[in-house]
Design brief:
The complex is a heterodimer of chains A (320) and B (84). Chain A has 320 residues and is of the alpha/beta class. Chain A has helices at 26-30, 37-44, 58-73, 97-104, 121-135, 211-221, 223-233, 250-260, 271-274, 281-291; strands at residues 9-18, 22-25, 48-51, 82-86, 111-115, 141-148, 166-176, 187-190, 198-200, 207-209, 242-245, 266-267, 300-307, 311-318. In chain A, helix 3 (58-73) packs across helix 4 and helix 7 packs across helix 8. Chain B has a single domain, classed as Non-ribosomal Peptide Synthetase Peptidyl Carrier Protein, Chain A, CATH 1.10.1200. The chains are: A alpha/beta (320), B mainly alpha (84).
């Protein structure tokens, strides 16, 4: 049997991000449930978050972010042959989000599928896209992380409604020459034994999270995963320009960063004004850091996704 | 060798200083974590994790919620710690 000719490596050509217009402040939430701006800032680090409008769908946000990344990449829709949407909040079980998003972006007949690894989804999708390009299965992949968590949150539950938010982020992945690989090997894993720590029981239920257990897991189990991704990429943590973990909780982000051993790296803190957007948080943070000039072309950045499952994935990328 | 009470207190002081920025000399046995030292539930988890590294004693979440004062943690470490 014949197999496809692969390429030496894969790289990210461009990022794009989209946030809904509506800003919801801590004070606004404090009018609905027993909490305060000070409490939310000190426990999770969020000052405000974005919530989708009533008629704004998951696909709308995915199209907006994907369109920006595609435009920034300089490619045309015809160049894209695979679309992956990482999400844990699809509008319906079928059809998937990716095929709809592809058609709305003018991408004709690509491979298209949704991927659910909860808040680790973007790093899983990026690893999958990178390997598809390297294997020669695809030439250019549009990877999108998109979530509308607001519709899965109980807005009377003060332990979760202060955290979760809506948004989308995207990356275009394409081939790289030997020695120019821009996406390092993915380190991924899971532990279904902790499935009861973050879950949505069924389609009539809301998201439930055991905050302390998740905090303990995230601050003890994940820095070795992050270090392993650096090791496999041949990049020492001290060479990282930035560390962009899933924006779960600013205190988790800071605790993992302390244990990483990369004091020079800029640590993403997008959660402050974006909230926790699950699989969208990493590409959203990256696109904003690039927009602001906080990270520059050619620099090495470590990504670390983690969340319900529990599941996790990490890889080092080169900024396009 | 099992640690004595003073050694555990010294170790806890170092941990609490690092995790919560509370000077070690303020960490005395009678202090309440929440009321006196202004330490919240997430910082308590960080203290438990650091205590496990330092004292070799695991403090699970369901036990952690019962530890209200510095003395409670000292007692837990002494009573749970493996004497060798």
């Amino acid at each position: 049997m014949r197999v496809t000719d692969g390429t030496a490596g894969a790289r990210i050509l461009a990022f794009g991000g989209y946030q809904p217009a509506r800003v919801v402040t801590n004070d606004e939430i404090a009018q609905q449930v027993e909490t305060s701006d000070e409490w939310i800032r000190s426990r999770v680090g969020i000052v405000s978050r974005r919530i989708a409008g009533p008629d704004e769908t998951l696909a709308d946000m995915a199209v907006a972010a994907g369109g920006k990344a595609l435009a920034a990449s300089g490619l045309s829709p015809a160049d894209i042959d695979l679309v992956i949407v990482a999400t844990c909040t699809p509008e319906a079980p079928i059809p998937n989000t990716a095929a709809t998003v592809a058609t709305r972006l003018g991408i004709v007949a690509p491979g298209a599928f949704d991927l659910n690894a909860a808040c680790a989804g973007f790093c899983y999708a990026l690893g999958t896209a990178s390997d598809a390009v390297r294997a020669g299965t695809s030439r250019h992949v549009l990877v999108i992380g998109a979530e509308k968590l607001s519709q899965w949150v109980d807005w009377t539950d003060r332990s979760t409604c202060i955290i979760f938010a809506d948004g989308a982020g995207a990356a275009v992945v394409g081939p790289a020459e030997a020695g120019e690989a821009g996406i390092g090997p993915v380190v991924w894993g899971s532990d279904g034994g902790m499935a009861d720590k973050i879950f949505i029981k069924d389609r009539r239920s809301f998201i439930v999270q055991e905050g302390q257990a998740v905090f303990r897991w995230a601050t003890t189990a994940l820095h070795p995963v992050a270090k392993k991704a650096c090791e496999l990429a041949g990049v020492d943590p001290t060479e990282l320009a930035a560390f962009v973990p899933h924006q779960a909780n600013l205190r988790i982000v800071e605790a993992i960063a302390r244990k990483l051993g990369a004091p020079q790296a800029r640590v993403a803190n997008d959660i402050v004004h974006a909230g926790n957007t699950s699989s969208a948080s990493i590409p959203l943070a990256l696109s904003r850091m690039i927009e602001r000039g906080e990270i520059g072309s050619g620099q090495a950045v470590l990504l670390l996704g983690f969340g319900a499952g529990v599941s996790y994935a990490a890889q080092v990328i080169t900024v396009p | 060798m099992a640690m004595n009470e003073a050694e555990i207190l010294t170790g806890l002081g170092e941990i609490i200083d690092e995790v919560a920025g509370v000077p070690a000399d303020q960490v005395t046995p009678d202090k309440s974590f929440v009321d006196d030292l202004d330490i919240d539930s997430l910082s308590m988890v960080e203290i438990a994790v650091a205590a496990q590294d330092k004292f070799g004693v695991e403090i699970p979440d369901d036990q952690l919620k019962n530890l209200k004062t510095v003395q409670d943690v000292i007692n837990y470490v002494r009573n749970t710690g493996v004497s060798a």
